[in-house]
Predict the 3D structure of the following.
Amino acid sequence: MLTYTVKRVVGTVPVLLLITLLVFGLLQLAPGDPADILLPEEATHEDIAEARARWGLDKPFHEQYLNFLVSAVQGDFGESFRYKESVITLLAQRFPATLELTFFATLLAVLIGVPLGVWAGARPNSWIDNFGSVFGFFGISMPSFWMGIMLILIVSGYFNLLPSAGRETYGIAGPTITGFYTVDSLIEGNWKGFFDALSYIIMPAATLGVNMLGILMRVTRSAILDVTHEEFVTTARAKGLSGRVVLWRHIVRNALITIITVVGLELGTLLSGSIIVETVFAWPGIGNLLINGLGTRDYPLITGVVLAYTVLFVTVNFLIDISYGAIDPRIRFD
Amino acid sequence: MRVSASARMASRMAACAVLAAGVTVGATASAETRLTLGITSNLSTVNPYGDSASHLYGLWGEIYGNLCRYSFDKGGYVGHLAEKWETTDENTWIFHLKKGMKFHNGTEVTAKDVVHSFFRMSEDPESSQKQNSARKIKSVEAVDKHTVKMISHKPTSSLLSYICGLWAITSKDAYDKYGAKEADKNHPYGAGPYKLKEFVIGNRMVLEKAEGNPFLRPGSPDIVIVRKMTESEQRVTALLNGEVQIAQFIPPHLLSRIEKSKNARLVPTSSVEIMFLAMNPAMKPWDNQKVRQAVCHAINREGIVKALLKGQAQLLQGPIGPGQYAYNPDHKPIYDYNPEKAKKLLAEAGYGDGVDVDLYTPVARYVNDKQITQAMVPMLNAVGIRTKLHTPEWVTQWANVRKGKVPFFYQGRGSVIDPGPALSQYFETGVSPRIKFSSAEYDKLMQAERAAFDEKKRIATLRQAMSVLTEQAPACFMWTHTLQYGVANNVDYQPRPDGRPYMSEATMK
């Protein structure tokens, strides 16, 4: 297990290097210069040249990239051109918001999508299967920005049930401990803060999670149908086990590998989706930060955020791989 | 009765939603008055000299205080922390500070704080965004505790437009004691009506009333929360369900939602952002004045304002409109919509068979920018100016405009209260390469207006310069937008044409 973990961590290094090189290279190729964009309209050529020199943009590409790598290895991703704050600080402030949103979206997708898929797979061609299929396709085909705006219009605008944007009502949340407002308020015993945080996260999480929910529902249904026809299921039934026991102890458990693999893969889509959802709901996460960074060609910020997404994606998939062993004892990591 | 797991989950979710809604509503019911403002732009940095966006000038002005501000009611500059000012010669400006003005930590605002603020703007690299505000000034010195002397590099009669509403006056003591970053973050002592309580980069700013501050009005909100809300649907919804009390910049297609509301209303204001079609005379066919004039006659501006801007704009007959300094109601020449005249001008310019041009516009930078320029294309084609429309990302277009690489483009220039600096920047020879227009007659007039300290003489010179500019047409001046704010019915607020949110001017009923 240790060897496997070390191998995976070492294997991540070239991935990160490649990502930084790609981001750096693409940013250099992209039209528009940060100094042109960020300096005021009245700025002169001299102002622009001075800012470019201060930000190191007057140096050749390879020198800029090496400087970045040397600093990054020491945990310094530079200072945001726009926000005049270190990228690490900005990521630390914003990352919990994205993680919390992603967690709730995944939770919603798993808690609804998997049971619905199991139910549909266990009763093929029944009304629940048909309903689940329609629901699944709805989730898969729904563009998240459109669903987000519809939720804002209907749930917030028409029924006034939930707040339309942001992460909390000012003054209700207590001190920040973990950065996850739902968790922090629970730690503090601040129920008002907990429900306030929950009220803000429901719509963005639903918007973000609906696509994953649809896919999970469809994949779970297929996996259940596949496993149902395996010989060991027939054996379990022949032994006289009840339908429920066969379903949950034998069929679902064996279908879990497929389901968890899809959860891991879909997390990548979910993370990229969070960029749009955070913008629609003014959710103060790193996706929102990335959009602002792109609009101003804030190179250090863009590189930092993309790296954060990469690390998150690699970590989640590593954890998913590790979890295979717990689900199926036949899987070994040596 | 058995209840399935999924049904139980559904009921819990519903309960949570209802409870959460209760929390949201309950949060606003408090003894202190709170006003939340939904803005479209970024809250980028806690450094009051670190960004030159109009809304931040306003917000920092409310915290730190300004030397002076522009009053649209009075049509001129008025004192804020300064009581009055005078010029003793063409380059020397003396500002007299109000006595007894206090920073939030109780220390008095003195001339040394003004000198320090100038220093931060002009020397601190972190504050480079505002260096231009200070660049016209050679030196600033404290004559005595309440008197500041500023010496300009050259005679600049429009100097106040570089200072008023732009310079935030920060505490020298706080800077000396804590350093710039720490002072800005944790000791932001200002002399404005509000104290900075919280600044969450890119997300939210919270201001708390500075009790006893003379700039407060009866009914000024106790707490002001400024929230970044980019999506217009979101701002309107948040206004209508009470999450925000003021929503900035409502686009034409959403006006009806607020008009139908019983909780909020629309409050319009004209803008001081001038919209124009720029033509770069360094490139053909724009080197020919008659082609440029033909463009101005070819565009049906009334039709565009009516159809695409739903009437939410005022046509410009020259570079500026009513409410802007030196506006001339009798301005000439005027370009009417006259395709025949446009064709004639084009033929006179030697393009009787027509000419191919490329028009550039950013997308979603200005109200309906893409649709507006799309509407212009057939109008230009109809007179023989065969136009190909390009819609680059704003970042790309702006970078190219700044380098003078764009031949023909749709553009806005904001914060044009006193038009002198903006018109110099875009059209005076050698000031910036954006349009590369050069006219000895215009340059001479602009130099004369800067040296004219007699207001009547300056206004007359500026008007003459604007007539020459309109005649020579390096740009067709289009319109200024009407800015629509959504305001809750329990708030009295008149937004400013320059977009600066002076929230002490809002009062809660």
Summary: Residues 191-228 of chain A form the longest helix (38 residues).
